[in-house]
Amino acid sequence: MNSLRALLGLVTMLLGIACAPLAQADDAITLTPIQIGEHSWYFQGESGAASAANKGFMSNAGFVITDDQVVIFDTLGTPALAQGMIEAIRKLTDKPIKLVVVSHYHADHIYGLQAFKALGAQVWANKRAAIYLASDIARQRLAQRQEELFPWVNEDTHLVAPDRPLDAGEAFERGGVRFRLIDAHGAHAPDDMMLLVENDRVLFSGDLFFDGRVPFVGDANTRQWLKALDSMLDTQPKVVVPGHGHASKTPQNGITLTRDYLLDLRRQMGDAVADLTDFDTAYEAADWSRWAKLPAFKAANRLNAYNVYIQMEQEALKGAQ
Description:
By secondary structure, the protein is α/β, with parallel strands linked by helices. It has helices at 2-27, 79-90, 107-110, 113-117, 129-133, 136-148, 222-232, 251-274, 279-285, 297-320; strands at 34-35, 40-43, 61-65, 70-73, 97-101, 122-126, 164-166, 170-174, 177-183, 193-197, 202-210, 239-244. Helix 7 (222-232) runs antiparallel to helix 8 (251-274) and helix 8 (251-274) crosses helix 10. The longest helix is centred in the N-terminal third of the chain and has 26 residues, at 2-27. It starts with a helix and ends with a helix.
């Protein structure tokens, strides 16, 4: 019996040794940056919602290599993805990563922050990020992602507050490259921020611009969002990198898709509110055929419609006062 136990123990140990390299290979995340300007690059996430299958890689992030440092825009949705960003950047340059600009505090853009903080990078974000960080929603979303995206989001994943909360947009320079932060708060999120790389005319827009998929509206102020879209082209970008989807050299197309979707939500839900139709009835009767085949429709559209329904009720009440 003792001999059998010893044999089983040896087999288990050998299997563990044999499987360890495979587990490490399976866990490895390799990201490929796409160059969009002399100094500017981005990582493009997959279409659809975050899942364990896609390792949470469903949003975009960017970086800019200047003469003396690297500037990051967003950090993707898991610490492992952020580490993949760092490793990909290190293949291009050994310049220090000094600054991270956060487009807005939503889970798929911020859970990689801790990997960059470990390098000593400073985090800049709109001061209204404090609203999210102090909310129950932030804690609930982290718990949800720890369950749904395990092991990519786990008990070691934590929220990182900005080192420099910004009250408004501003211009700055790093290593010979000029940047402009554009404050668009209260549109998609309370703390929206875009980053223009002036030397390259590349605009990192965050989730104010979606390409090829249904936008996530969440608690966005759609009226403000539409204004932000109308003014986005004022920066005269050569390339716009959205929060999700392909970078666009013809950004008018993506802007039109996002604008049309928001207008359609407001029209259909606004009509329902005006007719005193309850949400469930209104949603089932609505025509979603234009959007139904887009990625993330099933995951996002009903929640988007509900939030816009509530928003249209609030607008109607204000108008009646």
